[in-house]
Amino acid sequence: MAKSAKKKETPLMQQYNSIKVKYPGALLLFRVGDFYETFGEDAIKAARILGIVLTKRGNGSESETALAGFPHHSLETYLPKLVRAGQRVAICDQLEDPKTTKTIVKRGVTELVTPGVSYSDNIVQQKANNYLASIFFDKNLIGISFLDISTGEFLVAQGNAAYIDKLLQGLKPTEVIMGKRQHRLFVEHFGNQFYTYTLDEWPYTGSYAEEALHKHFEVQSLKGFGIDRLSLGIVAAGVALHYLNETEHRDLQHISSISRIEEDHYMWLDRFTIRNLELVGSANENAVTLADVLDQTASPMGARLLKRWMVMPLKEKKAISERLEVVDYLYANKDLREALVSEIRQIGDLERLISKIGLLKANPREVIQLKRALHAVEKLKALTATAGTPALQAIAAQLDPCQPIRDRMEAQLQSEPPVQVNKGNVIADGVDETLDKLRKVAYGGKDYLLEIQKREAEVTGIPSLKIAFNNVFGYYLEVTNAHKDKVPASWIRKQTLVNAERYITEELKEYEEQILGAEEKIQAIETRLYAELLAAVAAYIKPVQCDAQLVARLDVLLNFAVIAEKNYYIKPEISESDAIDIKGGRHPVIEQQLPAGEDYITNDVFLDTETQQIIIITGPNMAGKSALLRQTALIVLMAQMGSFVPATAARIGLVDKIFTRVGASDNLSSGESTFMVEMNETASIMNNLSPRSLILLDEIGRGTSTYDGISIAWAIAEFLHSHPVARAKTLFATHYHELNELTNSFSRIKNFNVSVKEVNNKVIFLRKLVPGGSEHSFGIHVAKLAGMPPKLLQRATDILKRLEQERTGGEQIKDSMKKIQKQAYQLQMFSIDDPILVKIRDMLNNLDVNTLTPVEALMKLDEIQRLLKN
Question: pTM higher than 0.90 for the full model?
Answer without folding.
Answer: no
